From TrEMBL:
CDD domains reported in the protein's UniProt record: VOC_like
Enzyme type, top EC level: oxidoreductase
Residue ranges the record marks as coiled coil: none
EC number: 1.13.11.93
Keywords for the protein's UniProt record, in alphabetical order: Aminotransferase, Dioxygenase, Iron, Oxidoreductase, Transferase
InterPro entries: HGLS (IPR009770)
Source organism of the structure: Paraglaciecola hydrolytica
Transferase keyword on record: yes
SMART domains according to UniProt: DUF1338
Database matches in Gene3D superfamilies: 3.10.180.50
Cofactors: Fe(2+)
Similarity comment text for this entry: Belongs to the 2-oxoadipate dioxygenase/decarboxylase family.
Protein name per its UniProtKB record: 2-oxoadipate dioxygenase/decarboxylase
Superkingdom as given in the UniProt entry: Bacteria
Length: 276
């Protein structure tokens, strides 16, 4: 387990940008905007990261969460995504400058038998103590799948297909619009990104949520990266960059939770079936 929370996030970020070149470009673009607006304050704050897994004992949500709980995070919310057969939790640190963490897991037993057997075979390659290792949260896939198995997973669960290729790593980082000085509205940021040539996730609308649910979110579509499967090379979606604007609750504090209906659409940023 990591003893330093900043080291953990630095490692997660380096692993993420290595397969998400658009995130590095967007980060640089926002840096430029921020520096123009106020050089002294220019910094991009990460609202949250998201991690994915399966509800199989040795690598389940709780095993991933343990790394953050050991660093002072606590469990703050539960979410259910019935259609996608997922459950999730989010975690927060007492230091609100540290990112929130959103961890989801696929309910494997609710998948068709063929999909279950592919997933169980993948997980059989994971060492029993793998989840306790310092680098587990950015250790990637501990297995390889065939093109046929990948196609079977895509047809049933885009989430499972993504996990089959990428394994354990941050699925996305999130720019906190509330902390930007150049952009004060998510819509303005989206326009700037679109003009710069980035493709945004349109599922459920470009902006998911809004002031009425205290959280507005948008995201890029995941980059396409060529990976080595067990029997061929294939171009598949990697990770994406999210943008979140939080609104004040009645007590004046910004809402810190998540909105299941919006998160449901954000998951689709990694869908292989959406052509760019």
């Amino acid at each position: 387990m990591h003893t330093n929370v900043n080291t953990l996030f630095d490692n997660l970020w380096q692993d993420y940008v290595a397969i998400t070149p658009s995130a590095q470009k967007i980060h640089a673009l926002l840096d430029t905007y921020e520096a123009k607006h106020d050089k002294a304050k220019a910094q991009i704050i990460n609202d949250h990261i998201a991690l994915r897994t399966f509800n199989i004992a040795k690598i389940n949500l709780q095993k991933l969460a343990a790394h953050f709980l050991a660093l002072g995070y606590s469990d703050k919310g539960d979410y259910i995504f019935e259609q996608k057969k997922l459950v999730a939790k989010h975690f927060e640190h007492p230091d609100d400058r540290l990112p929130k963490v959103f961890i989801s897991e696929l309910l494997v037993e609710e998948m068709p038998a063929e999909v279950q057997s592919i997933i169980l075979k993948m997980i059989s390659s994971v060492a029993d103590d793998a989840a306790k290792q310092d680098n587990f949260l950015y250790s990637g896939a501990h297995w390889q799948v065939s093109e046929q198995d990948y196609a079977t997973l895509v047809a049933e669960s885009e989430y499972a297909a993504w996990m089959a290729v990428w394994g354990f790593r941050a699925n996305h980082f999130t720019v906190s619009v509330n902390h930007l000085s150049h952009f004060t509205e998510l819509a303005d940021l989206n326009n700037a990104l679109t003009q710069a040539g980035f493709v945004l996730n349109q599922s459920g609308g470009e902006i998911k949520g809004g002031p009425e649910v205290l959280l507005a979110q948008s995201s890029t579509m995941a980059d396409k990266i060529t990976v080595q499967l067990s029997d061929t090379q294939k171009s598949v979606p990697s990770c994406f960059y999210e943008f979140a604007q939080r609104y004040a609750m009645d007590d004046g504090n910004l809402y810190q939770g998540f909105v299941a209906a919006s998160a449901d659409k954000i998951f689709e940023s990694t869908n292989a079936s959406i052509t760019m």
